TrEMBL record:
GO CC terms of this entry: plasma membrane
Organism field: Luteimonas granuli
Keyword line: ATP-binding, Nucleotide-binding
Single Gene Ontology MF annotation: protein tyrosine kinase activity
Official protein name in the record: Polysaccharide biosynthesis protein
Amino acid sequence: MTTNPDALVRADQRLAQRLVEYRTRAPAAATTAFSPAQMQERSTISPLGIGQPLVDAFRELRTRLLAAAGNEGNITVLVAPVSRGSGGSFVARNLAAAFAFDESTHAVLIDCDLFHASQDSTLRIDPTNGGLVNYLEDPAALVGDMLYDTGIPRLQLLPAGTASEGNAEYLSSFRMRLLLEVLHGRAPPRHVFLDSPPVRGAPDARILADLADVVVLVAGYGRDNPEQIARAAAGFDPAKFAGVVFNEGPWERP
């Protein structure tokens, strides 16, 4: 039997990183929940709003995604907008929040739109310890140091960090796959939501789809035409593709 040396090295790296994360894991600090008004300022639904149409729409989407994934374990969900400004970040943030409403569930939102990051500013978080780019660049970095509370209990943000031209291929790196393993393996395990760059114009969304269990496409209602939506959807594995969310706006960054 032939052994692949590269595979052995990667296995060692994976084990070493998970051991480091485990040994340095600190108990999660209690999150102070924001009021509904504070969450509205952050364009994020609040668990106190259950019963309102928008909140219940995201809760229904949560139920459908869990069913699509087979309701087994914690999942990685890719949320990809058709085009810039369709509202993908809004949907990703609020879908992650809806999952975190369940007291038995934890969630992490990762801002993967490296060159147009918005989650930290929208949630009014100062990423003093860095974010995704810093984790991917530094083999000694610990993801636990870069997870920030959002104001919703059990929901944390891993912001994008500071991107440069050399960061473009990070999303397809071995360390990106390792990151998801670490997040799913942390105590307690958690669902992971990837806020993707738009499908149109770059391959990043399709690269991230390889890491996801479920893919959600976001179309701006009246903004993305049927041909653009169909072309974007066709680029994803049908076995992972959960469907299209039509965002009525107001849309985020054009």
